[in-house]
Description:
Radius of gyration: 20 Å
Number of helices: 14
Bound molecules: nicotinamide-adenine-dinucleotide, zinc ion
Helix content: 40-55%
CATH architecture of the largest domain: Up-down Bundle
Distance between the termini: 42 Å
Largest sheet: 4 strands, parallel
Strand content: 15-25%
Amino acid sequence: MKEINTKTYKIAFGQSGYSLLNTLIENNKYSKVSVLVDDNTEKFCLDIFKQIINKEISIIKINSGEEFKNLGTVTKIWNDMTTQSLDRKSLLINLGGGVITDMGGFAANTFKRGLDFINIPTTLLSMVDASVGSKTGINFNNLKNQIGTFADPKLVIIDEQYLETLSEREVKSGYAEIFKHSLISASIFNLLLENNQLYFNEEIINNSIEIKNKIVLDDKFEQNIRKNLNFGHTIGHALESYFLNKVNKLTHGEAIAIGMICESFISNKIFNLNLELVKKIKNHLLRIFPKVNLQHENYEEIIKLMSFDKKNYLDKLKFVLLKDLGIVKIDVEVSENLIKESFDFYLS
Ligand SMILES: NC(=O)c1ccc[n+]([C@@H]2O[C@H](COP(=O)([O-])OP(=O)(O)OC[C@H]3O[C@@H](n4cnc5c(N)ncnc54)[C@H](O)[C@@H]3O)[C@@H](O)[C@H]2O)c1
Ligand SMILES: [Zn+2]
């Protein structure tokens, strides 16, 4: 697979990615190279990674899970960086899913005012989304990604080998972002719908990364077009936060799958998005993501969480909606009633 260029770093695939990494390490003469893993990526991914790296590494290990994407864990990472004597000439390699790449990027970018890091995403979601685009961050006060920075990795390596140990639930979570990319760009949408089940291949992964990269190249700091990537996320993030402390947590993808169904419905009401298309989107996503039982009495609480969303400005609930496949409208005000109706539509 041909590498993808961003303005400042490369997204490279498989062996050629690892060659670039070894060259980078050699050229930069890093004082230390440390690898950030969680319980699962230590178990499933670290051995694969160790086979390709030519330099001695130290390990920083954290607990796995979104509930650990917080300041407490960042403090632990900073402590380990200190103990391992990392300095500004050191390199941190984030080997893991979106939690690792977001939090590792943040820890590296803030430690001693910033050291180099690279991302090796090991989940489908982090391959097609989280590891690309230079957003780093952590959750704060139960709200998603409230604290963070924009920071470029030196390199991103996509190696599908890592996906072999990923659970089906996590694979589906990444698929939700692939599907989102197909809605906001209109490419690969028909291919995904034709299969009408969980389906992706190397080319779809590549295409999905290209879509995200192109948008980020145009608008890294999310002044306009990057907001397109938030389709499904205003409602999705609120649901993710809402379920975070419940027994039945949602994966990011599960939450935004619901978000995409609801926001397609709202798009129909406001921009006349074709109703047949809305139904196709709903049916496709419900085939893959089992319905989550939202309760009427919880609607208000979920909507309240939306007002903390970074996309919202001066208390208005702002949405990203579709006028058609690939035609996106940003900063659209939506009433609470219409949001509630969209939950009813999801449940119907
Ligand atoms: N920065 C961005 O632009 C951006 C974009 C999208 C999502 N995100 C963030 O990404 C996070 C979600 O990413 P995620 O779904 O990858 O979460 P994650 O990192 O929690 O990974 C999901 C689970 O899979 C495990 N895992 C990872 N790789 C594995 C492998 N190869 N084999 C077996 N298990 C493995 C992890 O330990 C974890 O339990 C969220 O925090 C979200 O906010 C960031
Ligand atoms: Zn997302």
